[in-house]
Write a structure and sequence with these properties.
By secondary structure, the chain is of the alpha/beta class. It has helices at 39-57, 73-82, 86-103, 119-131, 204-215, 231-246, 277-284, 286-294, 306-332, 342-353, 358-377, 383-400, 411-425, 429-441, and strands at residues 4-7, 12-15, 23-28, 61-66, 135-138, 141-144, 181-186, 200-202, 221-227, 251-257, 260-262, 265-266, 302-304.
């Protein structure tokens, strides 16, 4: 089955073919770890987790890398305010980020490099750019000369002639052009390293370029992803450095997810509507929040409203009820078949392979739930058909990373359920009510 993805660089939906047969290399820009992640930070975590899962299901060996930026002005400012070292602060917030990702049903990436682990490679990379004439040093800082890259703007489609200083570019009197960007920043504040140009720390765009370069052995990668806001200047500048240092572009496919709005407004500190991921997860559950994110196509804006969240909560509860009923019946009947409904699964896969259309894939999940419920309602139940629908549903949910939180169905729970049925048959309603309450507490009913 062919996978089609929208390539931001070409502006087209294209058939995905990996650069190396059977293998996929994917890098997604990760968080700057100085605070708790807000829900917008978690959208790429969910989106690219599903893409990775889909690629794996299609038979590819996926190397999925997502970094932690643990060197940044905001980190240093927070450390000074809290009286912590940069490592103490970033270790804590990396833990918080990972906890939120796992609570949302995402697996951690194959590799999660930190900028501070690659400082020797970063300094060497910058030295190479200076040596080749693509960068220049001024007063202890080093800048990349974008005029040396023919076709600069090819990833983001920005028109460099129309960009002005102060409009999404850093202003500095040291730069030859407003579009030139810092590779190395001279500083005497906070964490810093010795370099041929003096003490300082690296620029953001160089950090990711170097980690990709180091981990993937200077080869072009299949997919580079992140939020839509990273197209320019971050991804454009990563690609420019790669062209300068290796002679080839950084990635074959550039994939960007859109934003998250809160009640139809852009989430921002100025509006006071920033929602932390941990708070939403605590209030509604990670499966509910993941469903909200996946219910909208990744290139469209997700709108978080109370109504949308409540609707997702209802859908998750319906899903849980169907799974609990089916697994209980199948356990009692010792169902052993591992057959899936290939036709239903293929329809689901076709939706995901159409530019990761999770909203249509969720419709197929809903159809499978309806089929399962219809089979469960029949008096003379077809255990084989129920098992097939149940396994197919779980396969779909596994690919989407939607794992409704249910307690394990144990032999003890099954024994209590049998006693509950017996009590009902014998008219012992007091005992059946007691057993039913126990089963509900065990997440069996």
């Amino acid at each position: 089955m062919d996978l089609k993805l929208y390539n931001s660089k070409t502006g087209k939906v294209e058939t995905f073919t990996p650069l190396k047969e059977g293998k996929v290399s994917m890098y997604v820009c990760g968080p700057t770890v100085y605070n708790h992640p807000h829900i917008g930070n978690m959208r790429p975590v969910v989106v690219f987790d599903v893409l990775r899962s889909l690629l794996s299901h299609l038979g590819y060996e996926v190397t999925y890398v997502s970094n932690y930026t643990d060197v940044d002005d905001k980190i240093i400012q927070e450390c000074q305010k809290e009286g912590l070292s940069e490592k103490e602060l970033t270790d804590y917030y990396i833990g918080e980020f990972n906890s939120a990702a796992l609570a949302l049903g995402s697996k951690l990436p194959t590799l999660t490099p930190r900028v501070t682990e690659y400082m020797d490679q970063i300094i060497g990379y910058i030295y190479s750019l200076v040596y080749k004439g693509y960068a220049y040093e001024v007063n202890g800082s080093v800048y990349f000369d974008v005029t040396k890259i023919i076709g600069y703007g090819m990833v983001s489609h920005v028109n460099s002639e129309e960009l002005k200083a102060g409009s999404r570019v850093e202003v500095s009197d040291d730069k030859k052009s407003p579009l030139d960007f810092a590779l190395w920043k001279k500083t005497d504040v906070g964490i810093r390293w010795k370099s041929p140009w003096g003490e300082g720390r690296p620029g953001w765009h160089t950090e990711c370029a170097v980690m990709i370069n180091s981990i993937f052995n200077e080869e072009m990668i299949d997919i580079h992803g992140g939020g839509y806001d990273l197209k320019f200047p971050h991804h454009e500048n990563e690609n420019a450095q790669c062209l300068a240092n290796t002679g080839h572009e950084l990635a074959h496919f550039w994939v960007h997810n859109s934003f998250i709005n809160i009640d139809n407004e852009k989430m921002s500190k100025s509006l006071g509507n920033v929602l932390l991921a941990k708070d939403l997860i605590e209030m509604y559950g990670g499966d509910v929040i993941r469903l909200v994110i996946l219910s909208t196509h990744y290139r469209q804006t997700v709108n978080f409203t109370e109504g949308v969240i409540e609707s997702a909560k209802i859908e998750i509860n319906k899903l849980k009820a169907s799974i609990k009923s089916a697994r209980l019946l199948l356990a009692l009947n010792h169902a052993e078949s591992s057959d899936l409904d290939e036709a239903d699964l293929n329809t689901f896969m076709e939706a995901l392979c159409d530019d990761l259309n999770t909203s249509n894939a969720i419709m197929e999940v809903d159809n499978e739930v309806k089929k399962l419920n219809a089979l469960l309602r029949v008096k003379d139940k077809d255990i084989e058909a129920i098992n097939k629908a149940y396994l197919t549903l779980n396969e779909m949910l596994d690919i989407l990373g939607l794992h409704p939180s249910l307690k394990e169905l144990t032999d003890e729970s099954l024994g209590i359920y049998k006693n509950y049925l017996k009590a009902r048959e014998e008219g012992n309603y007091s005992l059946s009510d007691e057993l039913r309450a126990d089963l509900i507490n065990r997440d069996v009913l």
